[in-house]
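Below is one record:
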Amino acid sequence: MTATLTDVMDARRRVLDLTVREGASVIIVDSPPGAGKTRLVEDVVSAATSNSLRVAVLTPRAEQSFDLVRRLVASFPGIPIQVLQSAHRSYPPDLQNDSRVPLPVNDPANLSDGPGVVIGTASKFYHAIHCFTRGSKEFDLIICDEAYQLTFKDIEPFPAISGQLLLVGDPGQLPPVVTVDTTRFDAAPYKVHWPAPREVLRQHPDVPVVKLPATYRFSDDSVQLIQPAFYPSLPFRSAVTERERAVSFSARGFRDPIDSALDLVASGATIVAITLPPKDFAFDSADEDVATTIAHICARAIERGVRWGTRQLNDGDIACADAHVASGAAVRQALRRLHVSSELLVDTPEILQGLQRPFMVVKHPLSGVRRVDQFALEPGRMCVMLSRHQVGCIIVTRDGVGESLDRYDHDSGARPVSAEDTAWNGYRAHLQLWRKLEASKRIVHASHQ
């Protein structure tokens, strides 16, 4: 069942009411993948500045700030925009050549007052906080885009310089990157390393939470696999029909595992898996067989003329996700041997987070692992890889994922009391997903062909 336009509009209207009309001090927006988070941020900025408010939008990375600038100057040319960024950073070429884009401001003291929006990274705002607390350049509203990629520590100072805080993000994404040992904080009264919205809600359970009800990225077939496993507390549906996400091929394939998986996608199974025979290989080496299979899937899809509706897909419409840098490099080498262009993106979930492609091929984090560990079980990693596609996703792995999950012995005593048990959450998500793939006959066993 697809989500109705009324459901979507009601959720967006509720966010606008809370921020602009009711003036709630803190609002959290939980969003599934592809729900239009950035469009919602644009709408809030437009409504707030129209009501003479001074707004700041913070993003985890500079590229996300640049993307918001592009969208605002195109969709809302009347909004006064300022960009706060470090002196050593430059605009991308397209922004440098766009006369609508203002020159960046390096020193917060040089920001102009009055209604409008100031855009920058959370890090830049964090290090400039002392300039704002001098009293003359405070904000009516601070919006944190992709807020689940920011720690509580990252946003903790900002209520001091703003009357309102709006946290918009995807709770299923990878947690923020923290480069220090966080075990000392696990039992602390403030979980400074937790994603900001999660810790804010733990500290203040009465904070209003708006849950966006729909994804515009993939069909309900994908939702039925992804939502129960990775978003158990965020029910959502697809806002597109199966027909709008239909895949077809101009040429028939061979009767081999790769074509069997591709044909399953064309039949409407938007997420399928290919398993290779079990094999022992060095712990620190890339699995060349898996890398080669991933490359052949991409090449075969292109050779067969994969289509999304009337649109012919090309190399740039496909991406590969691999949690490990070394095995990702092996995929790139295999693609080069097959003469697939570098437009086909191969990268880690951390880099792919926030992106989308019509067609995805991903390596399962549990492929070939001898011991199921917390890295492999991290739910956000698999969630990101499975939620980048628009029309189809093929998982490649060594056989034995189900057996590894069955053998897994979870040690609940390995974490401090009140610490988040991400390994258990990941185990539950992986097991639920794999069992559904098995039950719906979406797993092609290469060893059995």
Remarks:
- Residues 422-439 form the longest helix (18 residues).
